[in-house]
Fold this protein.
Amino acid sequence: MAWVPSSDPRSSRLLLIYCFLSTLFCLRFIHLANQNAQACDEHIHHEVYNTSLNSPGFPRKIWQTSKTGAAGIEGDDRKAIQSWIKLNQKHRYEIVTQYSAESYVRDKFNHRADIQETFLDLQDPILRADLIRYLVLLGDGGVYSDIDTMCLMPMEDWVPSIYKDKVNLVIGIEYDSLGHDRWLDWSLDLQFATWAILARPGHLVMEITIDRVIQKLRRLARKQETTISGIKPTFRDVLDSTGPALFTEAVFESLSFATGSNFTWQNVSGLTTARLISDVLILPINAFGSGQAHSNSGSPDSDTALVHHLFKGSWKVEHPLNGEKEAEERVEKAEEQANIQNEEQDTVS
């Protein structure tokens, strides 16, 4: 017998209400399914980074960056590169250029549209160089070092034997005010060096650092009423958006989370021996910051010195602090410091 629609108005209203509620239920189910799928994807992406923390030791990889690649490197910079290769012969060595950096980001971070878009849009070479160091350490790990750094001790000897199986990140202090007035060139009372970082891939500090960089660059672009590609950073913008000030704040955030306390520069100021906090090994000033005129820095010839920074980069000149006068003063200061470093190198040679 065929079904015949009821002519009862009440029955029709009930049928309409039933259909409406059924539709809402189906839409809600689809929405929850999409949310769960997205959460699953984010969990998988996070695990892609962090499963490597279960493997023994640091990756035997040395990363450096150069605009021109190995072919354009001569003189003292080539000697500096050789110091890394000679003392770490079991390690693979790679110079990242602006073009190979783009290929790396496209391949390694194809699951992070925010990273790809930010890096590929970014035009300032110093902001790019800062960001790529964090990306290679997050993606593959190993050591990143600036092209104008000398390796003074094999990397396998950087971590004291008592900490060998407990460390996933090794960082060093570059500046410590020691409670005195802060020098002009620094944003914080204590900052960690970014010219040398040793990391296992997938470390939380690197994730936090990269997320902070993206946020800061977007904020800076809005402030300058431009796009990421149009950013014209000052010296201070570099420090605070991609450089050591931002990196230091990311370290403090990570260690605050790990320790359940408000971790600040005062927790490590005046450090004289390596200190392990969670899985982060913090080295005293002379490890990565020897030969400086502050922070109780010692001689590069000391057995506590692991890396020596030659301070040959021109980025400070190209990114003035504030105005023409300060730019001229910075040029003079950079040239004076470069001459001192060259004299020291000649003496060592």
